[in-house]
Q: What sequence folds into this?
């Protein structure tokens, strides 16, 4: 993409309404525009990051054997009356009446809708296990939407639902989700710690939230610092193996890590003092096992191998896809702007032309641009007639992890400059070598 042909409405001033750094940078970098309280348009740069995150979430869900689909945003109130949640959910639910006077709602979550789909088609244990998921907009009429996309009213969420014959099988699905979430967050460049949590309006017995530690997080968390040493890394996992998934679950949840809702002071005090931590965190996902809470009232039953009709065991599992855009920025920025992890960056590499209009510099930039594109990467070429300082400021703000700077002086010596956004370190290299280096960095991502 050439910047002169793109739509990147960068702001010079810091918007007064933004209280936290991710919100400020998302507005300044032209990623989002508020359309009303807690509701945003995703401008091209923000949309690209959102789609990159969504793609990674899809890949890891499919790898775990979960099946993608798409359910609507608007739902009929009748299904929610069956589960009893139409009255219970409260004011966060946006209720709508259609022209025929039928009660509808903008889905805050999808347990009822998916249970209805399941019971319409599945009648035998032979069709289990089954996990269906989608990535779709949700609406919760939050009383205090704030922090930009972190606590929106309309937000983008991956929500998945498992259907199993027994509690044991459903707990395997729970563990499988935990593993797939660990992998997902690591690919997004984040450390998200599973913490024992409270189930809220979803209900259920077993639940963990995934938290990214950040000063601006809304949740208060308590943990043993040893949990921050755990990483999933690139280990192989067989998602069908009950033992392997359970092993990972135990490894990542046996150390003390809880949100304030489930915090237990006595247990916490058993951790050696130097490892006790109290901090704040951003909730980027949650997994639930809730047994037959929905299948019983909604009559989602299957016949088991003895011919008996039994309600299925279920769980639901969510990732806050749009909130993650903000969470990644909270975890990765400096005072000049965003620093995107390679896995989610909107463009792989910036190209800055120090002397637009100089025949040699223009030609070298074109060559670098073509070579990166031919290698399957998306560069963003700043081809504006602007001062170098302004070009660098834009690149730093929008946070592309790598930048190739091309100018007449360097070209005289046959070099361009390759700069790492995170460290600020630069290296002079022949243009082909700079391109090769960038291509190498993204290999396998
Ligand atoms: P919170 O406690 O932050 O209100 P929740 O526990 O009600 O969230 P879940 O039902 O667990 O939310 O939804 C799954 C994920 O969706 C959350 O972990 C979070 O990342 C994201 N999410 C929930 N509410 C919002 C919101 N208002 N804006 C953006 N993302 C949200
Ligand atoms: Mg939650």
A:
């Amino acid at each position: 993409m050439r910047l002169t042909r793109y739509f990147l409405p960068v702001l010079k001033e810091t918007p007064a309404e933004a209280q936290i750094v991710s919100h400020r940078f998302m507005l300044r970098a032209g990623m989002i525009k508020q359309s009303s309280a807690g509701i945003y348009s995703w401008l091209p740069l923000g949309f690209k990051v959102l789609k990159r995150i969504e793609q990674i979430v899809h890949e890891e869900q499919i790898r775990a054997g979960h099946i993608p689909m798409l359910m609507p945003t608007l739902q009929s109130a009748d299904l929610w009356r069956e589960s009893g949640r139409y009255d219970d959910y409260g004011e966060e639910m946006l209720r709508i009446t259609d022209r025929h006077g039928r009660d509808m709602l903008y889905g805050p979550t999808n347990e009822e809708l998916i249970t209805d789909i399941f019971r319409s088609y599945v009648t035998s244990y032979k069709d289990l296990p089954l996990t269906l998921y989608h990535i779709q907009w949700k609406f919760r009429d939050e009383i205090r939407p704030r922090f930009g996309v972190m606590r929106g009213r309309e937000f983008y969420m991956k929500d998945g639902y498992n259907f199993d014959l027994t509690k044991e099988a459903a707990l395997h699905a729970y563990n499988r989700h935990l593993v797939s979430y660990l992998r997902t967050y690591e690919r997004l460049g984040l450390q998200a710690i599973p913490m024992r949590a409270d189930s809220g309006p979803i209900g259920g017995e077993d639940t963990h939230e995934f938290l990214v530690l950040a000063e601006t997080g809304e949740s208060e968390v308590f943990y043993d610092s040893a949990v921050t040493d755990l990483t999933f890394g690139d280990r192989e996992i067989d998602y069908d193996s009950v033992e392997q998934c359970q092993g990972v679950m135990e490894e990542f949840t046996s150390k003390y890590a809880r949100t304030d809702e489930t915090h237990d002071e006595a247990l916490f005090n058993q951790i050696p003092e130097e490892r006790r931590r109290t901090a704040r965190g951003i909730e980027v996902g949650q997994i639930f096992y809730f047994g037959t809470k929905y299948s019983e009232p909604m009559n989602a039953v299957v016949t088991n191998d003895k011919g008996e009709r039994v309600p299925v065991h279920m769980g639901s599992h969510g990732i806050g896809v749009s909130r993650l855009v903000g969470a990644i920025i909270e975890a990765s920025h400096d005072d000049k702007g965003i620093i995107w992890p390679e896995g989610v960056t909107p463009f792989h590499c910036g190209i800055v032309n120090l002397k637009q209009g100089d025949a040699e510099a223009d030609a070298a930039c074109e060559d670098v641009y073509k070579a990166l594109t031919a290698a399957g990467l998306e560069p963003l070429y700043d081809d504006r007639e602007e001062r170098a300082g302004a070009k660098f400021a834009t690149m730093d703000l929008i946070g592309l992890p790598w930048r190739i700077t091309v100018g007449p002086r360097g070209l005289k010596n046959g070099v361009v400059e390759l700069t790492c956004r995170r460290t600020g370190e630069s290296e002079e290299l022949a243009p082909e070598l700079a391109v090769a280096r960038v291509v190498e960095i993204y290999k396998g991502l």
About this structure: The CA atoms of residues 165 and 312 lie 5 Å apart. Residues 347-443 form a domain with the Rossmann fold fold (CATH 3.40.50.800). The mean pLDDT is 96.
